[in-house]
Structures are given as C-alpha cells and as structure tokens.
Amino acid sequence: MKLTINTNVSVDGVMQGLGGPEEDRRGGFERGGWAMPHFDEETAALVGRVYGRADAFLFGRRTYEIFAGSWGSGSWGADRGDNPISAALNTRPKYVASTTLTDQQWADTTVLSGDVAAAVGELKAKPGGELQVVGSLSLVRLLLDNDLVDELTLLTYPVVVGQGRRLFPDSGPDLALELVESRATSSGVTMQVYRAAGRPHYG
C-alpha cells in the first residue's frame, strides 16, 4: 500500500487545535478552532474526496481518540452515512500506533503497540491502494524520519496562527517533493498533493 499523509495546516504550518478551542490546549495553546471559519461545503467536499481515496487509516493515539469520539460515535459519526468522511472512516480498517491505548473505542481497529516503523513497513507491503495517516503529528514525524511516506496531502488554511505545534520541526530530515495536484476553494483553502522524491539538491 502507498502511505499518504492527510493533514490540515495553517500557512505557518500549525496543526494543533484546528477543530475547536478545547480540542488541544497543550503547551498553553489558546488559538484553537482556526480552521473552522474556512470549512464550508466546498472545502468539506474536497476533504471528503481525500478521505474517500483511503483503503485504510492510520492514527496516532491522540488523534484516534478525538476521531473515535466524534466520527466514531459522536454527532459526526456512524449515523451520518451520507457524509463521505464519516462513511470512509466507519467502513474501512483503522490502525492506531500506541503503547498505552487499552480501549479500542472504534470498530475495526488494530493497535500497533511495538516497533511502529516496522509495523507500518509491514502494512505498506500488503496489497492495497492507500494507507492514509490523518493528523497525528508525532506519528507523521516518526514516519518521515523513517522514510515511510510516499505522498503528503496538505490542506492549507489562509491564516497565520502564530503559536502551536507545527508539522515540521525546526530541524529534521530534508525531503524533496514533487507536486502532483493543486487546487483551491473559494474560501481560500488550498490543497497540494506532493509525492516524496528523495533528498533535495542544493545550489
């Protein structure tokens, strides 16, 4: 399977707390909900198409618990079969990387509790289309560190948050990217799909 990253970021790369003020307040983060003013029907349809590509989903523990509580059983969840995001999340296998998760709140979930990089490598070796990582910042960084990412889909919202945890750390592995697809919504959200292309060349 191809491993893809599907994540929402601000222009300055922040991933933290996009969904609401109380979603993730770690580190004193006070600017949650920055994506929501731009998440209109057009953006939702675009995001739904991204989720619809997945054959299976991979989460870090924190993102898994947020999604299980909302899409799995909450107001956005299994009773919303007409929603393409809900339909994808509730009908396809889910994997969660965690050494502490004991309550698998969501049907069709497998916990990867050992060597995550090795386990993901085994998943990638299986037949199938797309193993999609949603959010899950710490997991994304681990996968990038281990050269396991094939594509990144970045949905960038027209806002500079100015604080919070960012997709790329101040220092880390370098990565060349090839642009595969790009589009924009009328609310200013842009989607870029990048294919991993080895290491960059420096002039």
Polypeptide structure, described:
Helices cover 25% and strands 24% of the residues. With 203 residues, it is an alpha/beta fold. It has one domain (2-196): Dihydrofolate Reductase, subunit A. A hairpin with a 5-residue loop joins strand 7 and strand 8. Helix 1 (41-52) packs parallel to helix 3. The chain is globular, with a radius of gyration of 16 Å. The mean pLDDT is 89.
How is the topology of this model organized?
Blueprint: E1 2-10, H1 41-52, E2 56-60, H2 61-72, H3 84-91, E3 94-97, E4 109-112, H4 116-124, E5 130-134, H5 137-145, E6 151-157, E7 177-184, E8 190-196
Parallel strand pairs: 1-5, 1-6, 2-3, 2-5, 3-4
Antiparallel strand pairs: 6-8, 7-8
Helix pairs in contact: 1-3
Summarize the structure.
Helix content is about 25%, strand content about 25%. It has about 200 residues and is an alpha/beta fold.
Cα-based radius of gyration, to the nearest Å? 16 Å
Topology pattern, helix = H, strand = E:
EHEHHEEHEHEEE
Largest sheet: 8 strands, mixed
Number of domains: 1
Helix count from the secondary structure assignment: 5
Keywords:
single chain; 203 residues; alpha/beta; Dihydrofolate Reductase, subunit A; 8-stranded mixed β-sheet; 5 helices; 8 strands
